[in-house]
Inverse folding.
């Protein structure tokens, strides 16, 4: 069975533009909310049958062209020995963040952890139920974004602790990035071997640094991780960095097939800056889905028209879908993309 998302990445002709939505499995869906009344977030992530059920919900409800594994970018922290709690209304909290070089040296990755076993089982359960024309996307955080949580202990407005640690304790920072990259490789490997067909790296916090600091402190680890994955597996990779506009001259050197961009960038201009090296993914502003159908159709069609002029296009939002998004609007978005052209 032909899979439109994989065909676009391979440069093949497709009858319709593939579409999926970042954070498509989650809070805006009543079916997900019903499960959350019974189970806490971590239980959903760590129980293969439940994680597979949540992963498949948007495929059934919205008819998106790909499922993305339901999990969280902080789950690998558990395999490193960090205590992570997902607090309602606040997000993830790391209760034993990195504060010294000793903390980093004492990290002892558990490569036989419960998290990795449940991850493998989840991917297998999804593939048993996923329609043959739909693709399965696995993912992890990119190394720097995960390191940000491990140093800050939570999300942050200014990331002062991360930057101070990076500048003042550079050798320790580099050691942390090495250990984080190692566990992320294992998580990507686990998903690839269990049956994921595409892998995406989320670099939510990559844009908090200047381009020169990103190139010096982040890019080498990111590039190395991707190259190590590519050496072992032939799966296509997608890279997403929020606020990547000022970093394209650096990102164009990443060995990935797909560059996912947020809504602050124009598809055509981004493709030019990236020297037309990548299939582009994106990039509707998630807030548009709170508007009227006419607006959704207008903004979506505008992006689809631009997508015809780039190397290849996978339609998506420029960031995760908002919890207040009406399900009918998300479904209408998918229908609009599928009916285009």
């Amino acid at each position: 069975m032909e899979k439109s998302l994989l065909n676009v990445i391979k440069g093949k002709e497709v009858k319709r533009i593939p579409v999926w939505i970042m954070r498509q499995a989650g809070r805006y869906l009543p079916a997900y909310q019903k499960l959350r009344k019974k189970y806490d977030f971590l239980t959903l992530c760590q129980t293969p049958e439940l994680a597979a059920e949540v992963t498949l919900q948007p495929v059934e409800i919205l008819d998106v062209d790909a499922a993305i594994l339901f999990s969280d970018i902080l789950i690998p922290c558990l395999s490193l020995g960090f205590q992570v709690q997902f607090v309602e209304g606040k997000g993830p909290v790391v209760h034993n963040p990195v504060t010294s070089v000793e903390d980093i040296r004492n990290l002892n990755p558990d490569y036989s952890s419960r998290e990795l076993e449940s991850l493998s089982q989840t991917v297998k359960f999804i593939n048993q139920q996923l329609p043959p024309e739909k693709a399965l996307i696995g993912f992890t955080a990119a190394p720097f974004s995960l390191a940000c949580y491990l140093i800050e202990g939570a999300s942050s407005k200014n990331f002062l602790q991360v930057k101070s640690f990076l500048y003042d304790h550079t050798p320790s920072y580099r050691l942390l990035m090495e250990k984080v990259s190692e566990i992320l490789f294992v998580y990507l490997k686990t998903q690839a071997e269990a049956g994921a067909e595409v892998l995406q790296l989320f670099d939510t916090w990559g844009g908090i640094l200047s381009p020169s600091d990103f190139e010096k402190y982040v890019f080498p680890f990111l590039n190395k991780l991707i190259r190590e994955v590519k050496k072992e597996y032939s799966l296509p990779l997608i890279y997403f960095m929020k606020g990547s506009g000022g970093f394209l001259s650096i990102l164009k050197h990443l060995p990935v097939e797909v560059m996912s961009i947020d809504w602050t960038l124009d598809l055509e201009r981004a493709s030019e800056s990236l020297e037309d090296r990548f299939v582009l993914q994106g990039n509707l502003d998630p807030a548009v889905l709170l508007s009227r159908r006419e607006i959704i159709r207008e903004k979506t069609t505008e992006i689809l028209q631009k997508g015809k002029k780039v190397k290849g296009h996978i339609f998506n939002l420029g960031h995760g879908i908002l919890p207040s998004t009406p399900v009918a609007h998300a479904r209408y978005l998918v229908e609009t993309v599928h009916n285009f052209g």
